[in-house]
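Q: Please design a sequence for this.
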């Protein structure tokens, strides 16, 4: 890989990310050419990469393909393989992975045929994610920021379905336990304003 990246003038440390970025662009521009089970399965295999930057690009590519033709209509078997991976990333991935996982599932589980809309399986998957986050959402959790981002994007994509439960979670878990929580004056581990701004701009 390093030898090939040198041949095309790319530094080895960024060649993989640039390649995946190109993949997502091609999926956006030439969506029709990706409508083959073999190609889609290869893309799913790429989600097994241990690089955090990989999944968001691949999920973004799947989202573009879903806008062209949702997997629930075109490749339901591929969607069955993709869904549990997206669910895991939404709960346990990075905030960026969670964001794109939610969007990818929403787009590809929403049928474009007639007025069927989102299938029942999609509702069940998102309900399971919300229920898991409701139980585990705590400032002490390592994936707390991921959970907040995930809930936000579920609320954004499916506002009618999860309006009440997410509103309750925000009120009880985030506002009461985080924002209104008593903070000792001598606490040393509070991020600075600059740190908060950096976190917000990355989401």
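A: Design:
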């Amino acid at each position: 890989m390093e030898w090939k990246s040198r041949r095309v003038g790319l530094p080895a440390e960024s060649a993989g990310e640039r390649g995946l970025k190109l993949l997502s662009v091609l999926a956006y521009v030439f969506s029709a050419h990706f409508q083959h089970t073999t190609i889609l399965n290869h893309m799913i295999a790429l989600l097994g990469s241990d690089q955090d930057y990989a999944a968001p690009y691949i999920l973004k590519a799947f989202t573009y393909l879903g806008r062209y033709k949702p997997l629930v209509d075109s490749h339901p078997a591929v969607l069955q393989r993709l869904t549990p991976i997206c669910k895991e990333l939404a709960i346990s991935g990075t905030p960026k992975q969670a964001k794109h996982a939610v969007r990818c599932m929403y787009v590809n589980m929403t049928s474009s045929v007639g007025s069927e809309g989102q299938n029942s399986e999609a509702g069940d998957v998102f309900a399971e994610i919300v229920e898991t986050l409701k139980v585990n959402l705590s400032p002490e959790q390592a994936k707390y920021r991921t959970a907040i981002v995930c809930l936000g994007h579920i609320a954004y994509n499916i506002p009618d379905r999860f309006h009440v439960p997410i509103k309750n979670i925000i009120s009880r878990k985030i506002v009461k336990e985080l924002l209104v929580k008593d903070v000792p004056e001598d606490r040393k581990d509070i991020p600075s304003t600059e740190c908060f701004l950096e976190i917000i701009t990355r989401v």
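Q: Thanks. Anything notable?
A: Residues 1-5, 196-201 have pLDDT under 50 and may be disordered. The radius of gyration is 19 Å.
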